[in-house]
Amino acid sequence: MTIFVETERFLLRELVEADAQGLYELDSDPEVHRYLGNRPVTSIDSCFDIVQHVRRQYRENGIGRWAIEDKATNAFVGWAGLKYEMSIRVGAPYYDLGYRIIRRYWNQGIATETALASLHYGFHKLNLPTIFAAAHLDNKASNKILVNLGFSRIETFKLDDAVHNWYELNSNNFLSPE
Predict the structure, then answer these.
(1) What domains, with CATH codes, occur in the chain?
(2) Which of 31, 32, 70, 118 has the fewest Cβ atoms surrounding its Cβ within 10 A?
(3) Could you report the per-residue pLDDT of 124-158, keeping only the tens digit for each?
(4) 166 and 156 in contact (C-beta within 8 Å)?
(5) Looking at 102-137, which runs of residues are DSSP E strands?
């Protein structure tokens, strides 16, 4: 199993089939999906499909979301990372930062820590000039994380009948801790 990034507390590694149970805990929670279109998964089988979809992204695009594994417990706590996105926003493809954390791990700085490591990887390993991100207008926590990471809100857009903020971060504006 490939480990892409290591932070003080977490490994960011490839998503594997053994993560399906953790994905089910994450994506079956209606509160986790509150700002994601309110479509939680209803079976673990769909989580195996998610793993295969992400693994296909690794092969086809060289990047996809990574599992977040707690180094102290080996627990799956969510996912984070970059995705080569071609369909959410109209126009040219782009690299999108995303993160999703199991609710019992919220408010521990995990999204910020792993997003920062993902940005560092994107700008310093992949040499990306710009990374984008989106957050539902009402998702105060996610919007705060993106602003604290240095993203600038450039506009709003509608997705699934909800307004989202659209952010960008250029490599020359990224203040990496390393």
Answers:
(1) 3-173 (3.40.630.30)
(2) 31
(3) 999 999 999 999 999 999 999 999 999 999 999 88
(4) yes
(5) 130-136
